[in-house]
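Appendix B, example 12.
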Amino acid sequence: MGSYDRKAVATLALSATGLVGIATYEGYSSVAYNDGAGVQTLGFGSTRGADGSPVQPGERTTPARALRQLKADADATERALVRCLGPVALAQPEWDAYVSLAYNIGVGAFCRSTLVKKLKQTPPDYAGACRELLRWDKAAGLRLAGLTKRRQAEYALCSKAGA
C-alpha cells in the first residue's frame, strides 16, 4: 500500500505507465480481427477508426497509427469516466486501473457497474471498488485466463492507493 493523494477525477490524467499497461494487455494487431465477442478490433484494441466509423473486417493499420488511435481512445475513455464518476476523488493508481478496465469493457458497462456504485456511496468504498475489478474476467460468459491476469494486475495497481 502506498501513500497517494486522492484528487477529483477531472484533474487526473492516465499516466504513461497506465497507457503502456493498456497497450500491453490489448496487444497489437495490424489487421482487424474478431475479438471473440463479435467486435472487429484493430491496433491496440480499437473498435473504431479515427473517423469514428467501426473497424471493418480486413482493415489494416500501422504501429504509428495504432498508437495515435490508442491515445485518442484512452482520452475519450477518460472524458467519459469524468462524466460518469462526477465528484469522486481517486488516486493515480486507481484512475489508471479504472481507465484500463473501462477501455476494455466499454464505458457504458463501467458506468453501470457495482464498482462505480461503491465509489459514489458516502463514504466511498475504495477497497470494495478495487475488488470489483476481479469480477470482470469473462467474455461471452466464459472466464478467460488473459482477462483474469489483466484484472489481477489492475487490482494490484488499484490497491496501491490504500483504502
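The chain has a mean pLDDT of 93. The two ends are 9 Å apart (CA to CA).
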